[in-house]
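Bumping my old thread because nobody answered last time. Still need a sequence for this structure:
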């Protein structure tokens, strides 16, 4: 069984990216495990919080990505770049 994580790069409730992601999630084979992972509670990256002081939201986000066989990110593009909160979460997860 495949474990697939979906991440919506927009935090807006009515996001077109969220609508599109939800449609994609409906198309995943039934025998796959799918999970939406949010980064809304991940704080701004701070080196001083690494290690023993790492926020629980960071640990949960990183663990969810680590358990996945695949990650699908559906995101808007702002000023030719990744939305700041998504980039921040990826920075935390990559540490």
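Sorry it took so long. Here it is:
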């Amino acid at each position: 069984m495949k474990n697939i994580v979906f991440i919506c790069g927009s935090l807006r409730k009515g996001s077109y990216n969220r609508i599109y992601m939800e449609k994609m999630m409906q198309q995943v084979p039934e025998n796959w495990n799918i999970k939406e992972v949010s980064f809304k509670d991940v704080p701004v990256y701070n080196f001083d919080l690494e290690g023993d002081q790492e926020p629980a939201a960071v640990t949960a986000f990183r663990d969810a990505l680590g358990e996945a066989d695949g990650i699908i990110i559906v995101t808007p593009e702002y000023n030719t770049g990744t939305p700041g909160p998504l980039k921040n979460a990826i920075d935390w997860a990559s540490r």
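The longest strand covers residues 3-8. Let me know if any region looks off to you.
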